[in-house]
Amino acid sequence: MPKVGITTTVPVEVIYAAGWVPVDLNNLFITDENPQSLVEEAELAGYPRNLCAWIKGIYSIALKNRDIRTIIAVTQGDCSNTHALMETLQLAGVEIVPFAFPYDRDSDLLRLQMEKMMSYFGVSWKQVGEAKERLDRVRSRVWELDRLTWAENRVGGWENHLYQVCCSDFNGDPERFAAEVDEILKERRSAPARKEELRLGYIGVPPIVGELYQYLEERGARVVYNEVQRQFTMPFETPDLVEQYRLYTYPYGIFFRLEDICREAARRRLDGIIHYAQSFCFRQIEDLIIRQKLGLPVLTLEGDKPSRLDARTRMRLDVFLDMLR
After folding, report:
1. How buried is residue 172: exposed, middle or buried, by Cβ count under 10 Å (0-12/13-18/19+)?
2. How many beta carbons lie within 10 A of that of residue 181, not counting itself?
3. In 3D, which of 91, 70, 99 has the Cα closest to residue 3?
4. E-assigned strand segments in the chain
5. How far apart are CA 116 and CA 276, in angstroms?
6. Average pLDDT, stretch 282-303?
7. Which of 51, 222, 268, 298 has its Cα between 20 and 30 A from that of 241?
8. Beta strands at 198-203 and 95-100: parallel, antiparallel or unpaired
9. Cα separation of 119 and 105, whole Å?
10. Rounded to two decimals, what is the model's pTM?
11. Do strands 68-76 and 95-100 pair parallel, antiparallel, or not at all (unpaired)?
C-alpha cells in the first residue's frame, strides 16, 4: 500500500478509506535512532539555525524515507513554517497535498477542505464514514487508557502520552495498534493504584526533550492530562466527521483550546500545569494568554532540540513541585 506523510493530525479517515498508509513524520523523526543528526542535516542543507527543530527534523526524515513520495501539508491550523518546509520538499520531488483548517471553525469551509482531500484520494463520504467507524473502535480503547490515567490512577504520564500521540496515524496499522492497546489495558486494569502526591497537566505540543514524565514521577508528581495528545484521539462521540474535526481544538485559536483545558483541569483535579513551548514557535506568544486565563499555577518550559532534560530544566521542575506542595 502506498504511504503518505503527514505533518500533523489531518482527517486520517480519508487516507485509510483510500487504502493508503499514513505516516506521522513527527513520530518518525523523534523515534529515529539519532534525531539530533536529522536536525543538523537540515541545517547543512540550508535551514536556518533559529528555526523550530521539528520542522528541520521533518524535512530530513521525509528525505530519508524515499518510499514516502506524497505529503499532506497543513497550511493553516499548524506551524506557519510548514509553507517553506513543503516548498523545499517539493523542490526535492515530493508531491504536496495542501489541507487547511479554517481559523473560525467554519463548517462549510472545513467540509470543502475534506472533500478536496477526498477527491485527491478518490474516495466517497460512504467510504470515509466506514473508515471513521473502524478508527473510532480503536480510539475508544485509548479513551479508556486515558480514563484509567486520571480516574483510577493506574497509568503513568508517559504511557498516556505515547498511546494518545500515536492516534495521529495509528502507527500505520489500526488493528495491530488496537491489539497493543488491549494488552496494556489488560495489564493496567489489574495494577495497583498509583500514589503520586501531585497531579499535573501538560499542555502544548508534545515535548522534543526526553525523560520529562519519568523525572516528574521520580519526584512524586504525575501528568494525568496531556492536552494536545488527547486531542489526537478525537475524544468526541459524534457520528459527523466534519463536526469531529470542528471539535478538535489544536488547529484553532487559543481561546477555544482554553475551554477544553479548563474543563479537563477541573475534571481531573489538577494541582498545576506545565506549558511546553517549542523554541522559535509562534505559540510561545500564547503563553501570555494562558497565564492570564488559567486559574492554576503554570510552569512554562521551552525546548529546542532533541535531547535529555538539562540541569536548568530539572531545577525549574524541582522548584515548581516544591511550590505546589
Report:
1. middle
2. 20
3. 70
4. 3-6, 21-24, 68-76, 95-100, 198-203, 221-226, 272-278, 298-303
5. 33
6. 92
7. 268
8. unpaired
9. 21
10. 0.93
11. parallel
